[in-house]
Amino acid sequence: MLAQRSTFSNRADAGRQLAEALLASDLHDPVVVALPRGGVPVGFEIAQRLAAPLHVLIVRKIGAPGHPEIGIGAVVHGREPHVVVSEEAARQFQLPPGYIAAERDRQLAEIDRRRRMYLGEDADKTPDHAGRPIVLVDDGVANGVSIRAAIARLREIGVSSIHVAVPVAPAAVVELLSQEVEQVTCLATPERLDGVSLFYDDFDQVDDQEVIRLLKLAREDMARRARSDVHRGE
Hints:
Blueprint: H1 11-22, E1 31-34, H2 39-50, E2 54-56, E3 59-64, E4 67-76, E5 82-85, H3 87-90, H4 99-119, E6 133-137, H5 145-157, E7 161-168, H6 171-178, E8 183-188, H7 208-233
C-alpha cells in the first residue's frame, strides 16, 4: 500500500500514477479489469503501461430507498449473482420487505444492457481469466461494496490472484480489502472520505461512448503488440 499525493488532475493522471506504483509489484502477465464507467479511464492507463489486456466487470450500486445516490449495496452478474450489502449503511435506512431483491433484479437488467452495449457481439462470452493475476481498478472507493462484489465474482471465476488498484479509498476500507485480496495499491488513504471527487481536479462523468472508445483502443493496442511479437519471432 502506497501513500503519495492526494489529488489527481483527472482519471488518466490517476491511472498513470497507479501504473508507476504497480511496476514495483511482481505481476506476471496480468489482466486489468476495470469497473465502468469511471474505472475505465484509470484502467486504460494502467493496461497501456503494463502492456496488459483491458476488460470490464460491470457492478451496479444498490441505492438507499429514496436516496439512490447513497450506495447501501452492490450487485455483479455471474452464474449466481453476487450481492454485497453494507450493513452499516443499510442500518441508516428503513428497508421495505423485498427491497434488496427487487433492486438486485433491476440492476441485473441494467448490467445486461450495458454488457451488450460495451461488448457487442462478445457480450455473451465470458472472458477466461481463470488462473490469471487480475489488477482490479476503479476511480475511487467509498464504502467498498462495489469492489467487494467484483472480488467475489473474480474468485468465482478462479483467478490466481487479485491486486486492487485505486487512487483513493478510506484507510479502514483499504484495511478491509487487504484481508480479501493478495495486494492493495492505493495512493491516498484518508481516515475519512467525504467524496471521491474531492481528490480530483476534473471528475466529470464518464459516458458510455468513452467506455466503448477506450475498450476499442485497448483491443487494438493488444492486437498490434501480438503482431509485433509474431514478427520478432520470425
